[in-house]
Amino acid sequence: MAAVSSLRELQRAQGGVFPDSNLPPIYFGDPVAEARAAHDIAALFDLSDWSHIEFAGADRKSFLHNFCTNDINSLAPGAGCEAFLTNIKGRILAHVLVSATDRVLRLTSVPGSAAGIVEHLDRYVITADVQISDLTESVAALCIVGPQAAAVVLNQFGIHTGDLAMYASIAADNGQTDIIRVPLAPQPAFLLRTELTLLADLWQRLSGDSVQPAGRETWNALRVAARFPVFGVDISEENIAQEAGRTEQAISFTKGCYLGQEPIARLDALGHVNRILCSLRLATSDPVAPGTTVFDEAGDQEVGSITSSAIDHLAGGVVALAMLKASSARP
Question: What is the pTM of this model?
Answer without folding.
Answer: 0.95
